[in-house]
C-alpha cells in the first residue's frame, strides 16, 4: 500500500471513529437513528459499572436466544442486533427468578490473550445494553471465551462472522 | 581472554548488546574461553567418549549431542577435525549412570573442564542436559539452557490442557487434566509454580499450581474476566487483567495480603498481556486505546502509561526478557512476526520470517533464544527461534495443537 493511500485510509478510519463516538452519546436506544452502532446505551458510564457477585445457581440453559453478532475488532452493538437483546430483556422481565450469563466470543484472528479481553468487552456491551433496557445489573454476569470456542469451524469471513458473537446462557 | 579462536566478522548493532547482557557473572575470572563473533560456532565432537550399549547410556549420548547442537554455540564436527573434543565414558553401574567427562581444546590440548557425574539411570536425559549446560558454560562462558523447561498449552487429548517439556521438547508431562480450557501459563520467578487461566469452575479464573506438591489454588476469581497473570520478579505480586469493575483493566495483586491496585483506567479500551521488567519496576502490556492493540509501559506504581510501539498496525503478546529486551508479536505484511524491541532506544528487530504467523514469544533465560507458536495451515506448533541467526527449530513433534509457550526462568 502506498504511503498516501495509507494516510487516506487512516483519515477515513479516524473520521469514522469520531462518528462512532458521537453515536455513542445517544442515551436512549429508542432515540438512536438506527444506523450508527451504539456502545450499549451510554458512552463512558457503561464500562464503569462494577459486576455483581457470581450467581449461586448451578443449572444452565443454553441456546434459548439468537446470538448477537459484532463487526471485526469491535465491541459495539450494531443497530441491526438490538432487537435480539430486546427479546432477551423481555424474557428476563417475564422470568424474574432466572439470571443470565452473557458469553463474549471472537474470531480466530489476532492474539489469543487480546481476544480474551475483546470478548469480555463484547459481553460487557451486551450486558450494558440489557441494563439500559431495565434489567437489574446483579442478574447479569459476563464470561469471555476469546476465540477458544468458535461456533463455526472455518478460516474465512463466512465462519468468522458467526464467531464474533455474544451468547446468552440462562442460569437458575 | 587468553585463549581466542576468533575470526572477527560483522555483527549487527543489537547483538553485542545481547551478548554483553548475557555474560555470566563469573565471566571476568574465567580461565579459558572461546569467544567468537555472533553467529560463528565452535566445532565439537563426542567421538572420544566411550558409551556403553545400554539404553540409558545411549539416550544420554543422543541427548547430549542434540543439546550441544541446539545450544547455538556448537556444530557437531567430524571426529578428529573439531576445535573442541569431549572425552571420557558413559556407563551404567548398579542402576546408576556414571559419566566421566573431559573437554579439551583440540589444538592445544588444554582442558576446559573435567567432571564426574553419578545419577539414577532413569534420569539419563536430565543428566545429559546438565552436562550439556556445563560444557556450554565451560567452553563459551554463556549460560546453557538445556536444563530449563517450557510450559505450554496442548490439545492431544482434545482438550486445552497444560503441559511441561524439557527445553529440547522431550519428556512432555501433562500438568492439568481438567477437560476445561486452559490459557496462558507463566512461571513464578523461582520456577516452582505455574500461574494460568482455567475455566474449570466455568468462568475464566486465575490459578496457581505448585509443581513440587501438585497443589492448586485460586489466585483470582472475581466476577467477569480474570486472566493474564504474571508474577513479579521478587515473587510478591501478580499482574493481572480483571473486568470486575466493568471493563478489562490492568491490576496488581499482592500474593500475601490479596490487596489489589488498579493501574489502568480506560473505559473505552481493553488491556491484555502484562509482563514485568527484570527489575520489577515497570510492566509492559497491550492496550487498544488508540483503536488497535499496541504495547505500553507503565510504572508498577501506576501513573501515565507510555506507548512503546509506533510501527505496525498491531503489536501484541510482549515478554520482557532477562536481557532487558522485549519480544512481542507484530502484524507485518499480513502475518504476525516475532520481533524484539529495546525499550530504551526503541530499536526494533524482526526475528521470524516467512508467510506464516509467529506468535506468543517467550524469552529463554539465556536472552538469546525465543520459544513461540507458529500457525501454519491452521495448526499451531512450537518453534525455538534464535536471535543470533540459527534457523527455527521445531520443539514439539507430537500430534495436536501446541501454543502459548513460556520458558522457565532457569
Overview in brief:
The complex is a heterodimer of chains A (172) and B (410). Chain A is of the alpha+beta class and 172 residues long. In chain A, 37% of the residues lie in helices and 15% in strands.
CATH architecture verdict of the largest domain in chain B: 6 Propeller
Largest sheet descriptor of chain A: 5 strands, mixed
Shape of chain B: globular
Give average pLDDT of chain B, whole number.
91
Assign the CATH topology of chain A. 60s Ribosomal Protein L30, Chain: A
**Class from helix and strand fractions of chain A:** alpha+beta
Count of DSSP H/I helices of chain A: 4
**Helical residue percent of chain A?**
25-40%
Tell me the total number of β-strands of chain A. Answer: 5
- The total beta strand count of chain B reads 29
Point out poorly predicted stretches of chain B: 1-30
Radius of gyration of chain A: 17 Å
- Count interface residues per chain for the largest interface: A-B, 35 and 42 residues
The CATH architecture of chain A can be given as 2-Layer Sandwich
Helix content of chain B: 10-25%
> What order do the helices and strands of chain A follow?
HEEHEHEHE
- CATH classification, class level of chain A: Alpha Beta
Strand order of the biggest β-sheet of chain B: 2-1-3-4-5
**What general outline of chain A do the C-alpha atoms trace?**
globular
How large is the share of residues in beta strands of chain A?
A: 5-15%
**Straight-line N-to-C gap of chain B:** 27 Å
Amino acid at each position: 500500500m502506498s504511503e498516501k493511500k495509507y494516510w487516506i485510509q487512516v483519515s477515513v478510519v479516524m473520521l469514522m471513529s469520531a462518528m462512532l463516538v458521537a453515536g455513542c452519546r445517544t442515551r436512549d436506544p429508542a432515540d438512536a437513528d438506527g444506523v450508527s452502532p451504539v456502545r450499549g446505551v451510554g458512552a463512558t458510564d457503561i464500562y464503569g459499572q462494577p459486576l455483581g457477585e457470581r450467581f449461586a445457581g448451578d443449572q444452565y440453559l443454553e441456546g434459548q436466544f439468537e446470538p448477537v453478532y459484532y463487526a471485526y475488532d469491535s465491541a459495539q452493538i450494531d443497530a441491526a442486533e438490538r432487537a435480539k437483546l430486546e427479546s432477551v430483556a423481555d424474557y428476563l422481565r417475564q422470568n424474574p427468578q432466572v439470571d443470565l450469563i452473557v458469553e463474549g466470543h471472537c474470531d480466530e484472528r489476532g492474539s489469543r490473550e487480546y481476544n480474551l479481553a475483546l470478548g469480555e468487552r463484547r459481553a460487557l456491551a451486551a450486558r450494558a445494553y440489557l441494563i439500559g433496557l431495565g434489567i437489574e445489573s446483579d442478574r447479569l454476569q459476563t464470561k469471555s471465551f476469546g476465540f477458544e470456542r468458535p461456533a463455526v469451524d472455518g478460516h474465512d469471513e463466512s465462519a468468522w462472522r458467526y464467531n464474533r458473537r455474544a451468547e446468552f446462557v440462562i442460569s437458575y | 581472554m587468553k585463549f581466542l579462536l576468533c575470526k572477527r566478522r560483522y555483527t549487527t548493532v543489537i547483538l553485542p548488546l545481547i551478548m554483553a547482557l548475557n555474560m555470566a557473572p563469573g565471566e571476568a575470572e574465567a580461565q579459558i574461553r572461546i569467544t567468537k563473533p555472533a553467529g560463528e560456532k565452535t566445532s565439537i565432537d563426542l567421538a572420544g567418549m566411550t558409551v556403553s550399549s545400554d539404553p540409558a547410556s545411549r539416550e544420554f549420548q543422543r541427548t547430549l549431542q542434540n543439546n550441544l547442537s541446539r545450544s547455538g554455540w556448537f556444530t557437531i564436527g567430524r571426529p578428529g577435525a573439531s576445535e573442541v573434543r569431549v572425552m571420557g565414558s558413559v556407563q551404567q553401574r548398579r542402576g546408576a549412570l556414571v559419566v566421566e567427562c573431559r573437554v579439551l581444546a583440540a589444538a592445544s590440548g588444554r582442558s576446559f573442564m573435567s567432571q564426574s557425574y553419578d545419577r539414577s539411570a532413569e534420569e539419563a536425559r536430565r543428566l545429559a542436559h546438565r552436562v550439556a549446560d556445563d560444557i556450554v558454560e565451560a567452553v563459551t562462558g554463556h549460560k546453557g539452557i538445556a536444563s530449563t523447561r517450557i510450559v505450554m498449552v496442548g490439545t492431544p487429548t482434545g482438550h486445552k490442557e497444560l503441559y511441561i517439556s524439557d527445553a529440547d521438547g522431550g519428556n512432555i508431562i501433562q500438568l492439568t487434566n481438567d477437560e476445561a480450557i486452559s490459557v496462558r501459563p507463566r512461571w513464578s520467578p523461582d520456577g516452582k509454580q505455574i500461574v494460568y487461566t482455567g475455566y474449570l469452575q466455568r468462568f475464566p479464573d486465575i490459578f496457581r499450581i505448585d509443581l513440587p506438591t501438585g497443589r492448586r489454588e485460586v489466585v483470582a476469581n472475581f466476577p467477569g474476566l480474570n486472566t493474564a497473570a504474571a508474577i513479579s520478579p521478587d515473587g510478591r505480586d501478580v499482574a493481572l487483567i480483571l473486568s470486575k469493575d466493568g471493563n478489562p483493566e490492568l491490576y496488581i495483586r499482592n500474593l500475601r495480603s490479596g490487596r489489589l491496585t488498579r493501574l489502568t483506567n480506560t473505559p473505552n479500551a481493553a488491556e491484555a498481556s502484562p509482563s514485568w521488567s527484570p527489575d520489577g519496576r515497570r510492566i509492559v502490556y497491550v492496550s487498544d486505546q488508540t483503536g488497535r492493540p499496541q504495547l505500553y509501559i507503565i510504572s508498577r506504581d501506576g501513573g501515565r502509561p507510555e506507548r512503546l510501539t509506533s510501527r505496525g498496525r498491531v503489536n501484541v503478546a510482549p515478554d520482557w526478557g532477562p536481557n532487558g529486551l522485549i519480544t512481542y508479536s507484530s502484524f507485518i505484511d499480513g502475518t504476525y512476526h516475532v520481533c524484539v524491541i529495546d525499550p530504551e532506544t526503541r530499536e526494533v528487530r524482526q526475528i521470524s520470517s516467512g508467510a506464516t504467523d509467529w506468535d506468543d514469544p517467550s524469552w529463554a533465560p539465556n536472552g538469546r533464544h525465543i520459544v513461540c507458536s507458529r500457525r501454519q495451515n491452521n495448526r499451531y506448533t512450537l518453534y525455538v527461534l534464535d536471535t543470533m541467526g540459527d534457523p527455527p527449530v521445531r520443539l514439539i513433534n507430537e500430534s495436536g495443537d501446541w501454543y502459548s509457550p513460556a520458558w522457565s526462568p532457569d
